[in-house]
Amino acid sequence: MDHSHLAANWADIRHRVDAACRAAGRDPAEVAILPVSKTFDPEVVRAAVALGLHRFGENKVQEIRDKSGPLADCGIAWVMIGHLQTNKAKDVARLASEVQSLDRTELAEALHRRLQLEGRSIDVLVQVKTSREESKYGLPPAELPTFLDRLRQYDTLRVRGLMTLAIHTDDPVEVRACFRQLRELRDAAIARGHDIPRLSMGMSGDFPLAIAEGATEVRIGTAIFGRRPTSDSFYWPETGH
Ligand SMILES: *Cc1c(COP(=O)(O)O)cnc(C)c1O
Known about the structure:
Elements: H1 4-23, E1 32-35, H2 42-49, E2 55-58, H3 61-68, E3 77-80, H4 89-95, E4 96-102, H5 105-118, E5 122-127, H6 144-151, E6 157-163, H7 172-191, E7 198-200, H8 207-212, E8 217-220, H9 222-225
Bound molecules: pyridoxal-5'-phosphate (PLP).
């Protein structure tokens, strides 16, 4: 199969991210792009690796399992960005380099236990629910201070920042409010002594707003890999550019 669109898409999104940084008065070097390869086959990911990409976001443990075998020679760092069931902690502890969807104590406990058995530690971001939508996972903002304090006891989990999904709406004011809330939560946590500089927020359809509010990392699927089947609950219509 021909994957030449990937190179063009990658160049285009890096260019658009850099432009959003400049528009916000920020240094483009401060904002990383996490390519989200969910639903795309290992051969597509391999073509992306050939472009120099080596970190990929996935929202299902099963997909990390299915892809990590055939791509074992690529040295990929798999980043879990989707809702994680506690009974999948074993595979995550074995295969993932990072979890951005840590949102409850039982999950931290399960990951810690499995990571101890593996003799590994991983970076984690705490997923916070900044929108009022029922369908979104994440820790309620009011619980963040207690949760961060509690995470200190798990030495296999290096807490590095926060992650969120903004409300799914066309109203940029509401979307931006979600991102702003995450930044304010991070700043308050830093003021309390937590070393959590990272903000993972923004996707193909809303990353300029996230960058304007301080994202250090944007998670980009569609704009790099193309459209996914519409059954994917996180499918967002393209906003045009
Ligand atoms: C799918 C997904 C993304 C990427 O979404 P796009 O709109 O395709 O860029 C980002 N974050 C999470 C948690 C996702 O599940």
